[in-house]
Amino acid sequence: MTLLLEGGYFLSILSFLGGLKYLSKPKKAKLGNTLAASGMILALGLTVVSSIMGTLPYTNLIIILGALLGGTLLGKYMSKKVEMTAMPQLVSLFNATGGACAFLLGIVESNQEAVFEKWQILVLLLGVITGAIAASGSVVAYRKLAGKTKDKRSNWVNVFSKALLLFLCVFTVAAVFNWLDISLMMYTIIMVSAALMYGVLFVLPIGGADMPVVISLLNAVTGIATAFSGVLYHNKVMIAGGIIVGAAGILLTVLMCRAMNRSLLKVLTGSFHKSKVVVGEEKVQEITETSVSETALQLSMANKIAIIPGYGLAVAQAQHLCQQLEKLLSDKGGVVHYIIHPVAGRMPGHMNVLLAEASVEYDALKEMDEVNDEMSSYDIALIIGANDVVNPAAENNPDSPIYGMPIIKAYNCAASVILKRSMNRGYAGVQNELFDEDGCKLLFGDAKDSLQQIVNQLKLI
Amino acid sequence: MSALLEQLDSLYFIVFCIFIGIEIITNVPAILHTPLMSGANAISGVITVGAILMLHKVEANDYVNLIIGGIAVFLGALNISGGFFVTNRMLAMFNSKSK
Lengths: 461, 99
Hints:
The complex is a heterodimer of chains A (461) and B (99).
Chain A: H1 2-23, H2 29-53, H3 58-81, H4 87-110, H5 118-145, H6 155-176, H7 184-203, H8 211-233, H9 236-259, H10 264-269, H11 292-301, E1 304-309, H12 311-316, H13 319-331, E2 335-340, H14 350-357, E3 365-367, H15 368-371, E4 380-384, H16 393-396, E5 415-420, E6 440-444, H17 447-460
Parallel strand pairs in A: 1-2, 1-4, 2-3, 4-5, 5-6
Helix pairs in contact in A: 1-2, 1-9, 4-5, 4-7, 4-8, 5-6, 5-7, 5-8, 6-7, 8-9, 11-17, 13-17
Chain B: H1 2-6, H2 8-24, H3 33-43, H4 47-57, H5 63-98
């Protein structure tokens, strides 16, 4: 039985590896997901079977099976129900459940009669701390993405979270050597409470647009928590799964930061070096406002149209209208391309998912790098709810906070129309120099309403 | 000290896993970041195995620990199934269009 169990775990580890490998290749991603899921079913199945074969009391067995079934069904239901726009939140929420599982596990473990060696106590506590931070941090990230919690950048958050971190370190040492002479469970519960608080304070100051990076990081933290538990249980599949997710998660976090031209450190401290922008030197921009009918006319006359979607499109949930517009325009003989910035949407790749859901043809989606050199061949760029990703300041203004970020060269198009809710700035809080360009017009209003009106007008033309 | 030496093979194993984990997702295109994150999230739900193993040790009449352990298994299973199903849903949207 042990041989079977270990062999099965080995197969699971292999399928996790293969799954992740395939998940990073566009053509095989779906296979990768199935592979990883099969590995997981194998690992769980073998563990359950070995419990049935063993001398497990029926009460325990029923609880295990019931909880497994309940969790699986609820997970399936939630993932079916969720709107595609709300999906990043859901990923964060699921990450929170994994972290919660890790620290609950630690609490029960610490309550057992067993005598622990010092290193075991250390591993247990580290697992509990990482699990609790991932859990509460992910919940805050979820609430931020859902727009339920605002950023908090006051000083006390900063000071308090540093103090908590210090407390966690000192208290871990205290627990390992039992300085306070209390039970391990008491230590564990105090640690969990402190770590939960730390998780909240850790995420609170970080800006909403940086949440994907944070979720990816917390995902890695959950992986590390899993690995700690794995060490405690001498369970290879847990160690492997946890560490691989941890390492891959941290790398993914770094990759995301790079795509957004942000340093991880700056994301974590919630700073966007705003100080560099001196208020006095801002010039008054000469913007040209346009109307729905003018935009519709411009679009109907254009042969090659670039649609540049951004965060605002996702917020307004206008992706379906966007697809209608594209259909109308291509029926009139125009060529329509969606040009997608690597970080458009709420997560890298999120915009692709949203547009794919609105049945936009895969061929119409262009990655930024693919078309950036031939932007001048487009007659008009329709920029929907995107701001910083088309701001030429990133290329020609070294003082700008977004200087160096790769942008879509919309300024090379003959004309551009920007659908915007108001003159509010983008996330980076800088003026968009694109507005000053000749041929650039702004259409104010909710992206969804504006698109609807444009579609209506186009139907008449 | 001997207990620590016993852990040495775990340590080797961990170091290898770190390198494999980093190696395996280099060169991932930005479009797959979100599904990959979600899939990795589901894999970290393997913590559920630990939760099940832990429930092995709990006495059948120790209701407090049984309930906490049960919640842990439930949350772990939720993480796994939710993670994989959401990833699948995201990827299904790419695949139907790419043909």
